[in-house]
Amino acid sequence: MNHGLENRFGGESEYSRDQSNPYEMADYLFDKKLDYRLVDPKFYEFKDEWVVKNVYEVLLRDPHIDASEIEVDLRGGVVILSGHVDSRKTKKLAELSIQGLPGVKDVMNFLSFLPLP
Protein backbone atom coordinates (compact mmCIF):
# COMPACT_ATOMS: atom_id res chain seq x y z
CA MET A 1 0.00 0.00 0.00
CA ASN A 2 1.65 3.23 -1.12
CA HIS A 3 -1.06 5.80 -0.32
CA GLY A 4 -0.70 7.40 -3.74
CA LEU A 5 2.96 8.31 -3.24
CA GLU A 6 4.21 6.68 -6.42
CA ASN A 7 7.26 8.24 -7.93
CA ARG A 8 9.74 7.61 -10.67
CA PHE A 9 11.67 5.08 -8.55
CA GLY A 10 9.77 2.00 -9.57
CA GLY A 11 6.44 3.05 -8.08
CA GLU A 12 7.73 2.87 -4.52
CA SER A 13 6.70 5.34 -1.89
CA GLU A 14 8.88 8.23 -0.73
CA TYR A 15 9.71 6.18 2.37
CA SER A 16 11.25 3.21 0.59
CA ARG A 17 13.80 4.89 -1.69
CA ASP A 18 16.66 3.08 -0.01
CA GLN A 19 15.76 0.00 -2.08
CA SER A 20 15.88 1.93 -5.37
CA ASN A 21 18.86 2.23 -7.65
CA PRO A 22 21.25 4.80 -6.12
CA TYR A 23 22.25 6.03 -9.59
CA GLU A 24 18.62 6.82 -10.41
CA MET A 25 18.37 8.76 -7.17
CA ALA A 26 21.54 10.74 -8.02
CA ASP A 27 20.21 11.48 -11.52
CA TYR A 28 16.94 12.67 -10.00
CA LEU A 29 18.76 15.04 -7.62
CA PHE A 30 21.05 16.35 -10.37
CA ASP A 31 18.02 16.99 -12.58
CA LYS A 32 16.66 19.26 -9.83
CA LYS A 33 19.97 21.19 -9.98
CA LEU A 34 20.28 21.39 -6.21
CA ASP A 35 23.43 23.14 -5.04
CA TYR A 36 23.94 23.63 -1.33
CA ARG A 37 27.72 24.00 -1.27
CA LEU A 38 27.70 27.57 0.08
CA VAL A 39 24.73 27.31 2.40
CA ASP A 40 25.76 27.53 6.03
CA PRO A 41 24.17 24.98 8.38
CA LYS A 42 21.30 26.66 10.22
CA PHE A 43 22.35 26.10 13.82
CA TYR A 44 26.11 25.74 13.35
CA GLU A 45 28.45 28.55 14.31
CA PHE A 46 31.86 28.57 12.69
CA LYS A 47 34.82 29.22 14.96
CA ASP A 48 36.30 32.66 14.35
CA GLU A 49 39.83 31.27 13.96
CA TRP A 50 38.66 28.91 11.21
CA VAL A 51 36.84 31.67 9.30
CA VAL A 52 39.82 34.06 9.53
CA LYS A 53 42.20 31.31 8.39
CA ASN A 54 39.92 30.50 5.47
CA VAL A 55 39.71 34.18 4.45
CA TYR A 56 43.51 34.51 4.55
CA GLU A 57 43.91 31.35 2.45
CA VAL A 58 41.52 32.64 -0.21
CA LEU A 59 43.29 36.01 -0.34
CA LEU A 60 46.75 34.43 -0.44
CA ARG A 61 45.86 31.97 -3.21
CA ASP A 62 44.45 34.62 -5.55
CA PRO A 63 47.22 35.50 -8.04
CA HIS A 64 45.74 39.00 -8.56
CA ILE A 65 45.84 40.01 -4.89
CA ASP A 66 48.98 40.96 -2.97
CA ALA A 67 47.71 40.10 0.51
CA SER A 68 50.98 40.93 2.28
CA GLU A 69 49.55 44.23 3.62
CA ILE A 70 45.98 43.02 4.34
CA GLU A 71 44.75 42.47 7.87
CA VAL A 72 41.63 40.41 8.59
CA ASP A 73 39.44 40.71 11.66
CA LEU A 74 36.12 38.99 12.38
CA ARG A 75 33.30 40.18 14.60
CA GLY A 76 30.05 38.28 14.71
CA GLY A 77 30.53 36.78 11.26
CA VAL A 78 31.42 40.16 9.71
CA VAL A 79 34.87 40.21 8.12
CA ILE A 80 36.72 43.50 8.48
CA LEU A 81 39.48 44.09 5.93
CA SER A 82 42.09 46.76 6.65
CA GLY A 83 45.53 47.63 5.36
CA HIS A 84 46.84 48.59 1.94
CA VAL A 85 46.54 47.25 -1.61
CA ASP A 86 47.91 48.57 -4.91
CA SER A 87 44.67 49.57 -6.68
CA ARG A 88 40.95 50.13 -6.39
CA LYS A 89 40.44 46.99 -8.50
CA THR A 90 42.42 44.87 -6.02
CA LYS A 91 40.43 46.36 -3.13
CA LYS A 92 37.15 45.30 -4.73
CA LEU A 93 38.54 41.92 -5.79
CA ALA A 94 39.60 41.16 -2.21
CA GLU A 95 36.08 41.89 -0.99
CA LEU A 96 34.35 39.88 -3.71
CA SER A 97 36.65 36.88 -3.30
CA ILE A 98 35.63 36.32 0.32
CA GLN A 99 31.91 37.07 0.11
CA GLY A 100 29.91 33.90 0.46
CA LEU A 101 32.61 31.91 2.25
CA PRO A 102 31.27 29.67 5.03
CA GLY A 103 30.92 31.67 8.22
CA VAL A 104 31.11 35.06 6.45
CA LYS A 105 27.89 37.02 6.90
CA ASP A 106 29.14 40.35 5.55
CA VAL A 107 32.35 42.15 4.58
CA MET A 108 33.44 45.61 5.67
CA ASN A 109 36.22 46.77 3.36
CA PHE A 110 38.47 49.45 4.87
CA LEU A 111 41.40 48.73 2.55
CA SER A 112 43.20 51.78 1.22
CA PHE A 113 44.90 51.70 -2.13
CA LEU A 114 48.29 53.22 -2.72
CA PRO A 115 50.57 52.36 -5.61
CA LEU A 116 53.21 50.10 -4.14
CA PRO A 117 56.87 50.72 -5.14
Describe it for me?
The protein is globular. Helix 3 links the parallel strand 2 and strand 3. The protein has two domains: 1-34, no CATH class; 48-113, Histidine-containing Protein, Chain: A. It contains three helices and three strands, in the order ααββαβ. Strands 1-2-3 form a three-stranded mixed beta sheet, covered by helices on one side. Helix content is 30%, strand content 19%. By secondary structure, the chain is of the alpha+beta class.
Task: Sum this structure up briefly.
This protein is of the alpha+beta class. 30% of the residues lie in helices and 19% in strands.
Summary keywords:
3 helices, globular, about 30% helix, Histidine-containing Protein, Chain: A, 3-stranded mixed sheet, about 20% strand, alpha+beta, disordered N terminus
Q: How is the secondary structure organized here?
A:
Elements: H1 22-31, H2 48-61, E1 70-75, E2 78-85, H3 88-98, E3 106-113
Parallel strand pairs: 2-3
Antiparallel strand pairs: 1-2
